[in-house]
Specification:
mainly beta, 61% strand, Jelly Rolls
Length: 116
């Protein structure tokens, strides 16, 4: 049987994967992650919902990621560059090679599409 070609991003049918920043990347707080990965395709394509509680950690992107913030407030700072505050309704792309920090001020939930 072939999988349907239309897939709703419905997290009710997916168990969240718990997570946290690696200890060597943690800057402050005790952030916890939950990830509902609703799509995973050969070739390194992922889509779903990610949520993080307050805290700050270093980020290094090898992948391309589209993000749409659903709720909360975070500050994403690029190393040697600008700090940007993102909140519900904001959409952006983080490209491979982006290095900096992600600080969650209010528990943040985003939709994502990642291409490795």
């Amino acid at each position: 049987m072939t999988a349907p070609k239309f897939l709703s991003v419905d997290i009710e049918s997916v168990d969240p994967e718990p997570g946290a920043p690696a200890p060597d990347r943690l800057i402050s707080g005790d952030p916890k992650f939950r990830t509902w990965n609703v799509e995973e395709r050969d070739g390194g394509l992922y889509a779903g919902i990610w949520e993080a509680t307050p805290g700050k950690w270093r980020i290094e992107y090898d992948e391309w990621e589209f993000c749409h913030i659903l709720s909360g407030v975070s500050v994403i700072s690029e190393e040697g560059g600008e700090a940007r505050t993102v909140r519900a309704g904001d959409s952006f792309v983080l490209r491979p090679g982006f290095n900096g920090s992600w600080e969650v001020l209010e528990t943040t939930r985003k939709e994502y599409v990642i291409k490795l």
